[in-house]
């Protein structure tokens, strides 16, 4: 991915590129079948984006990723960040 991609994400979300890269690095070997891991990722994304996630929304995201087998990628993260 090029630097422009991250600049666009940074501009759209208000999230620092450094934080995005650190989060991406932490996701590389994460076990997304583990509910605790997924909840920690959700909390971290919420914190970085400064957008609170309700318990109900957290449960839906966890279910989507863990139970339904959805993958966690930049697109999913972006959607999580931009949810209100």
UniProtKB/TrEMBL annotation:
Domain of life: Bacteria
Pfam families in UniProt: SpoVIF
Record-given protein name: Stage VI sporulation protein F
